[in-house]
Amino acid sequence: MHTLYDVVTQIPTFLHITEAKVNDMNAMDEIPYEPNAYYIFDQGYFDLARLFTINLIGSNFIIRERSNLKYDVINGEALIESPVNIIYVQTIRLKGQKTKERYTALLWRVGYYSVEHRRTFTYITNNFEISAKEVALLYKNRWQVELFFKRIKQHLHITSFWGITETAVRIQIFSAITA
User: Fold this and answer.
1) Domain span at residue 130?
2) Per-residue pLDDT of the chain (179 residues; tens, 9 = 90+)
3) Residue 63: strand, helix, or coil
């Protein structure tokens, strides 16, 4: 189940159910994107062409960087003494023939050190207007999706299905989640 989760209302606004073998990034094509909205993805959704589509719509995204991402730093600085654990903030341009064809605009790269996890997280976003601290905080709120799925696994008990067609099963799952 792929979901678009509103962290303010704590309610899923969109659900897309697929077979387990469907790659996460393929579900991105089904999301009803809205201009000026924020979409926070985990690394399973890292697809530069689809992220560029979100950028063209006028929406914002934040995603964790993949370790093999190739880029040139256009400008940026290291912030070792940051009180909010921001390690670096960089404007980058992707490089590599296929990579730069899939995402042609500049991106913002934010490094954040999590004291709680004792590790550094690197985020990529197309939004240059918010602060680096806000980028890290928005990504941290993505954890609400994980908690939502945990609640579903613990509390969603469907003992029998009233119908066995795909539509009947989907309706019952949507109804149970809504309830």
Assistant:
1) 2-178
2) 777 777 777 777 777 777 777 787 888 888 889 999 999 888 888 999 999 999 999 999 999 999 889 999 999 876 666 677 899 999 999 998 888 899 999 999 999 998 888 999 999 999 999 999 999 988 887 777 777 777 776 766 666 667 767 777 777 777 766 66
3) strand
The residue with tokens 């924020």 is: 38
Split into its structural domains, the chain has a count of 1
Region of residue 49 (left: phi > 0; alpha: psi -120 to 50; beta: else): alpha
* HEC-encoded secondary structure of 124-172: EECCCCCCHHHHHHHHHHCHHHHHHHHHHHHHCCCCCCCCCCHHHHHHH
Q: What is the pTM of this model?
A: 0.80
